[in-house]
């Protein structure tokens, strides 16, 4: 782990973790007349260095929220502030691991990860860092392979490595472990925690997996419809829950506190009987 | 975000190219089909198969030659209608002896290569500018579309008046013929580059020229080569048109000249030479295409 963080490879970007402030964020899609709100009134302050997990049912707007933070999408109302300055246009302070791997098919995995390197990194340091990251995600043997020659989970790990290569102030991860088997998933979660503790960065982690959120996050944000019983025409998701996960990492999966939190989160997501 | 409203044509597929008469051949289809999928494809078996396929493709030409020979040897056709293969060969030898055949072939090939190269480069530049720049697209695409709608031979009188009957006017006509297929395929290809890939690259700070070279151009390599092959076929078409209209050298000139002298053997010779040279240049481009598609697609 420490090799990635050795001064020689990281000094080029002496980045620090940056706070993210969503302020009254709203976003609707569709042509005028048939506009459908996806997000409304999303306000939350993410501390520098915090890991925030974002939970929510499919289609509730999790990716849309991340895209706003990355500057890939412009909200209709409200704004995102990173380190106190508003995001406008693609934000160099963020690195995204998209929900799909989005690797360039004509590049090797190594060249794909290199796309993530910060502009300032020198060629040799950059190459060393790329190889180190590929090794960390367990793909050093596949550095020269093309994306079509590797599995979906391998492509997803490459995409994670590409985001990590940026050494960003804010790391935006959209279901980064979705396509991984249980064992690889745990290894990648540990990798994320290692990198996070060695190298300060704020992480916004979208996930479907309540247990993953409980293991990794400092706080968990649940996006969903704020149904107060009657249809008042206010559609779109907002923050229905924001909880601090008790205990320091690594956490005991079987602790009673986590068990209670797990059931309450699951019921928020519409799963009952656990 | 701007949403694309107008429907746009899908980039020209190989099937469509084949349908409109581009020389897309059986071995290309195989070469295309087996590009993706799988770890380390067996290179040896592929080469063997390709040679086999080329040999199979020679069966029909050999049968045609045999049929031609039999129909003339049996007296079914008079020599003035259809000369025998041997007399066409004799005509070739005769022209070689006079030192004319090489001149015809070389001058025709030179015109095609020049026109094709100039037209392709202009097509790539115009396709890239209009395919990538929203402003240029809005300003120029209707005009280019109107120019494309002009049947290219309609330019001939103008070219002859402006440039005169010389090499330049012939090469210009071929340039026009080569330009549009390249322009169209590149333009449409660039409009259809996977937006997710472009967005991912831009999210990592790749933009401008670097975006063009790392994402957009590699993504359109297959489409570009389809356009180039179509352009090459067009170049030969326009060569013959230019040489039929006004020339004193070249395979097209050999055609008109032989028609005026009633030399059917030489007409057949010119046609066969056009077929062979056209197919050869297309095959060379096909090799480049296979290499490029393997590299970038
Ligand atoms: N560019 C767009 N144009 C139109 N609608 C969009 C666009 N992007 C997102 N949406 C809509 O916004 C809603 C939320 O999409 P989003 O991708 O943010 O969901 P998500 O929470 O990430 O879902 P999942 O868990 O399935 O990935 C969806 O209903 C989607 O149809
Ligand atoms: Mg999503």
TrEMBL record, chain A:
Statement: the UniProt record of this protein carries the keyword Transferase: no
Alphabetical keyword list: ATP-binding, Nucleotide-binding, Transport
PROSITE patterns given in the database record: ABC_TRANSPORTER_2
The keyword rRNA processing is annotated on this UniProt entry: no
The ABC transporter domain, residue ranges: 20-250
Lineage of source species: Bacteria, Bacillati, Actinomycetota, Actinomycetes, Micrococcales
Designated name of the protein: ABC transporter ATP-binding protein
InterPro entries assigned to the protein according to its UniProt record, in alphabetical order: AAA+_ATPase (IPR003593), ABC_transporter-like_ATP-bd (IPR003439), ABC_transporter_ATP-bind (IPR050166), P-loop_NTPase (IPR027417)
Automatic annotation (TrEMBL), chain B:
Residues in coiled coil: none
Pfam families assigned to the protein according to its UniProt record, in alphabetical order: BPD_transp_1
UniProt KW keywords: Cell membrane, Membrane, Transmembrane, Transmembrane helix, Transport
GO annotation terms (biological process): alkanesulfonate transmembrane transport; cellular response to sulfur starvation
Keyword Thylakoid set for record: no
Gene3D superfamilies hit by this protein: MetI-like
PROSITE patterns assigned to the protein according to its UniProt record, in alphabetical order: ABC_TM1
Bilayer-crossing regions: 51-70, 112-133, 145-165, 171-190, 211-230, 236-256, 268-288
Similarity comment text for this entry: Belongs to the binding-protein-dependent transport system permease family.
Record's protein name: ABC transporter permease
Organism: Arthrobacter bussei
Origin organism lineage: Bacteria, Bacillati, Actinomycetota, Actinomycetes, Micrococcales
């Amino acid at each position: 782990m420490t090799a990635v963080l050795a001064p020689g490879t990281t000094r080029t970007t002496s980045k620090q973790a940056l706070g993210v402030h969503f302020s009254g964020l709203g976003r609707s899609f569709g042509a005028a007349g048939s506009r459908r709100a996806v997000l409304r009134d999303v306000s939350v302050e993410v501390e520098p260095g915090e890991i925030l997990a974002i939970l929510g049912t499919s289609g509730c707007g999790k990716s849309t929220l991340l895209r706003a933070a990355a500057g890939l999408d412009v909200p209709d109302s409200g704004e995102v502030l990173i380190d106190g300055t508003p995001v406008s246009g693609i934000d160099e302070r963020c690195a995204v691991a998209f929900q799909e791997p989005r690797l360039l098919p004509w590049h090797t995995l190594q060249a794909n990860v290199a796309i993530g390197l910060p502009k300032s990194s020198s060629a040799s340091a950059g190459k060393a860092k790329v190889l180190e990251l590929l090794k960390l995600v367990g793909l050093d043997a596949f550095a020269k392979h093309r994306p079509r020659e590797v599995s979906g989970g391998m492509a997803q790990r490459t995409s994670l490595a590409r985001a990590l290569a940026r050494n960003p102030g804010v790391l935006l991860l959209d279901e980064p472990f979705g396509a991984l088997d249980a064992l690889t998933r745990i290894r990648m979660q540990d990798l994320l925690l290692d990198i996070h503790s060695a190298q300060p960065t704020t992480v916004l982690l979208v996930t479907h997996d309540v247990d993953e959120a409980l293991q990794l996050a400092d706080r968990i944000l649940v996006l969903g419809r704020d149904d107060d019983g009657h249809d008042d025409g206010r559609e779109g998701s907002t923050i229905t829950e924001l909880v601090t996960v008790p205990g320091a990492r690594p956490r005991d999966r079987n602790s009673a506190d986590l068990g209670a939190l797990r059931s309450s989160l699951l019921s928020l997501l519409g799963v009952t009987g656990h | 975000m701007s949403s694309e409203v107008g429907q746009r044509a899908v980039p020209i597929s190989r099937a469509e190219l084949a349908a409109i008469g581009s020389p897309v051949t059986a071995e290309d289809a195989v070469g295309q089909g087996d590009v993706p999928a799988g770890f380390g494809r067996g290179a040896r078996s592929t080469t063997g198969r390709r040679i086999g396929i080329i040999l199979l493709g020679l069966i029909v030409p050999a049968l045609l030659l045999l049929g031609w020979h039999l129909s003339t040897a049996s007296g079914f056709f008079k020599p003035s209608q259809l000369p025998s293969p041997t007399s066409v060969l004799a005509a070739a030898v005769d022209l070689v002896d006079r030192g004319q055949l090489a001149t015809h072939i070389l001058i025709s090939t030179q015109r095609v290569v020049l026109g094709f190269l100039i037209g392709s480069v202009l097509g790539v530049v115009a396709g890239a500018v209009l395919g990538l720049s929203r402003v240029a697209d809005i300003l120029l695409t209707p005009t280019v579309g109107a120019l494309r709608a002009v049947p290219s031979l309609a330019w001939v009188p103008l070219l002859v008046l402006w440039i005169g009957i010389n090499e330049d006017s012939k090469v210009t006509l071929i340039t026009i013929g080569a330009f549009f297929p390249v322009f169209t395929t590149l333009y449409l290809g660039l409009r259809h580059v996977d937006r997710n890939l472009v967005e991912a690259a831009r999210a990592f700070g790749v933009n401008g020229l670097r975006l063009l070279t790392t994402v957009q151009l590699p993504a359109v390599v297959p489409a570009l080569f389809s356009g180039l092959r179509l352009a090459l076929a067009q170049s030969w078409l326009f060569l013959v048109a230019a040489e039929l209209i006004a020339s004193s050298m070249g395979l097209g000139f050999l055609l008109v000249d032989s028609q005026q002298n009633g030399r059917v053997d030489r007409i057949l010779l010119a046609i066969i030479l056009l077929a062979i040279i056209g197919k050869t240049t297309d095959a060379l481009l096909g090799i480049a295409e296979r290499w490029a598609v393997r590299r970038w697609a």
